[in-house]
Specification:
Strand order of the largest sheet: 4-3-2-1-5-6
Strand content: 15-25%
Radius of gyration: 14 Å
Mean pLDDT: 94
Order of helices and strands: EHEHEHHEHEHE
Low-confidence stretches: none
Largest sheet: 6 strands, parallel
Distance between the termini: 36 Å
Length: about 160
């Protein structure tokens, strides 16, 4: 069994999502034999949710890591809420971190939990260095690599961010 966590950009351009999804499907198919795939995701908008959908579509089991008790109410916007709720419902396991508020500490704890649960990390990442604010995609990639965890970067040529 292979457990793969995801980190990635939230602000994916809508027209690049199909190429990102196809790249994720291709990668995850390698691990999906005989129900041996487990995907771990915070199911945030963007990369996390695209990855979670790919895990489920490829017959994998989903573990959702929710950063805080108030995350659904305070962070998940109305546009993302239906997909978020669907993914929570489809998850085999939902881990809500013991933080009341979605803040930097909650996100850092969620990222640490992602890495603790996983054998590998998939980064839907354009390769840009850390912003210096902490907790971003590049930071998680650096943490995984420092732990010796294999990291697969997914960023097809068509991929773009809106931000």
């Amino acid at each position: 069994m292979t457990t793969i966590a995801v980190t990635g950009h939230m602000d994916l351009a809508a027209d690049s999502v199909p190429a990102i999804r196809a790249a994720l499907d291709g990668l995850l198919r390698r691990y999906a034999r005989d129900g041996a795939l487990v995907g771990v995701s915070c199911i945030a908008e963007g990369s996390d949710s695209v990855f979670a959908q790919s895990v489920l579509a490829n017959g994998g089991r989903l573990v959702a890591i929710i950063p805080s008790r108030d995350y659904r109410r305070t962070v998940v916007g109305p546009r993302h809420a239906p997909l978020f709720d669907h993914l929570v419902e489809a998850a085999d396991e939902v881990v809500v971190m013991p933080h009341e508020t979605a803040d930097r500490a909650a996100y850092d704890a969620a990222n640490a939990a992602l890495l603790e649960h996983a054998d590998r990390l998939v980064a839907v990442w354009n390769g840009e260095p850390p912003s210096g604010q902490g907790g971003g995609t590049a930071d998680v990639v650096l943490q995984a690599r420092a732990q010796g965890m294999p990291v697969d970067v997914v960023w097809p040529e068509e991929a773009r961010r809106t931000g």
